[in-house]
Amino acid sequence: MSSEIPSTDTNVRLERRGAAASPGIGIGPAYVVDRRRVQVPHQKIDKAETEAEVARFRAALRETHDQIEGVKSRLGHGEHRQILKAQQLMLRDPDLIQRTERLIQDESLNAEWAVARVSDQIQERFDAIEDEYLAARQFDVAFLTERILRTLLGTNPDEIHPPEGAVVIAHDLSPADTAQLHEHKVAAIVTDEGAPTSHAAITARSLEIPAIVGVDDIVEQLESGVLVAVDAVHGRVIINPNEGDLAKLAEETRVYEEFEDRILKERALPAVTQDGHRIRLRSNIAMPTELESSLSHRAEGIGLYRTEYLFLGRDVAPTEEEHYQVAKHALAQSAPFPVLIRTFDLGADKQSKVFRAAHVEANPALGMRGTRLALKYRDEFRIQLRGLLRAAVHGPLRIMLPLISGLEEFHEALAIIDEAREQLNDEGIAHSDDVPIGVMIELPSAALVSDVLADHVDFMSIGTNDLIQYTLAIDRENDEVNYLYQPLHPAIVRLIRTVCEAGKRSGVPVSVCGEMAADPMFTWVLVGMGVEELSMQSVSIPLIKQLLRLSSLTEMEELASAVLQASTAEEAERVVHDRMSERFPEHMQHRAGVDEDLPVEAEAGA
Ligand code: PEP
Ligand code: MG
Q: SS3 of 596, please?
């Protein structure tokens, strides 16, 4: 479909489809971000200017050196400091300097062009060598090149500055980028890549920015300034919408907002089923600014605080004091309810410059991620844990460990928690000695040994996003395999049931904090299998609460047992979809998704 679509510098109306990742409707001028590469200007300079250009290049090297020095001075003695030192040495590499200067002098290339060309040549040499150590050096060259280019250009291409009300069109966005967009009050987001459980999509949902992902080649087909209407309920992007489209979308917005208002009116009522069963509904957050939304949507505390976001977009890890203040603030805002703080889950799609090692992995989702990464960088892990143990004197804080594979890993992490506690004891610093420690169940291995884990942990929280990714072998960032994202696959429901049974046997509470928890399609199945707490983006809490209040545990258990008997995901989906649509037509109608049945209107002039 994409190849048939012309570029949009004319007023032709076009419609594209993708997966609605964050519901809502947004209309505004396109703001196109294409950052797959730093844009390198290619200019031939006059012979008379070559000396000045060489001087500009040398000044950029000095400035880059100073920037790195600044980062180093904020670091302790560790591996990262050594890496930065090595990068500073590279800046003095005569080969790099002479070759760049020759290109400026002999071929009259501007400094940016010369730097990029030399960097490509150096990286090509590394490409030919299969060696992990050298692969890491290749990363250093790429990192340095980017820094030098940024300095030469006097801009920071990492930053996005869309005007208020714009529709951001991007190839992909990192979770940190998406978080930034909130401040710019954008109307919507559309990306070429990504799937609804990617972290950028999750962030968009939390921030209530309508978003559609997986719209192939949208970046190449749009110019900034073209009017775009984003219907992120049905997964529709309309480029150059006509008056009829705008009227229809205005009506949809009105219906959607009216439905939301009705739901919001009941947000203060307790989440108790018709037959008296109490479910805890908590918030997933990543940033302190989201605490307000958690409060206004009447969450009973925080069920997942993704603290890795504290590490993104910076060169130096947060200090103990920062961890302490962040946790203390969350407790104060959420009182009297608990705050489950997940220790940093970096790696895979959430790469931090602080822990650079993960950048050179061939399969980062199967590599240094979550608790494994924390166990490699124990100093940083201990610093966070000290901050959390200190904050716990201010309220019911719980520590949750991500991506645990089994009991050994849990014990290893526990040993670091003990170390942090002992240090605080020895130093006479106030902290809590009885913080509940739990694990996330995100790997099939953890679900299968949840009976073993349940004897050692204080709680278990099922991260269905990763559990589905790792059980069904589908990269959650890859829109090509998103069709295999099947939360009701028999393998997934059996694993969830296994965890619920293990929790019940040992008296350990089981919650779900993956995206399944926020989808009305799955509420009955999860609660019917024995899940006692659901944690989700705050905005979804009133909707799920209303659904629970209109339901009985008995009917939820009946549906769960029908699902457990299904042989395929398709069969289970049919059973659940029919039942939920019959009982909650409105809730189901407002689920974000791709509406395959919606006809694509023929192209027409605007
Ligand atoms: C999950 O995996 O379901 C989860 C909640 O963690 P995250 O989405 O941050 O990986
Ligand atoms: Mg996860």
A: coil
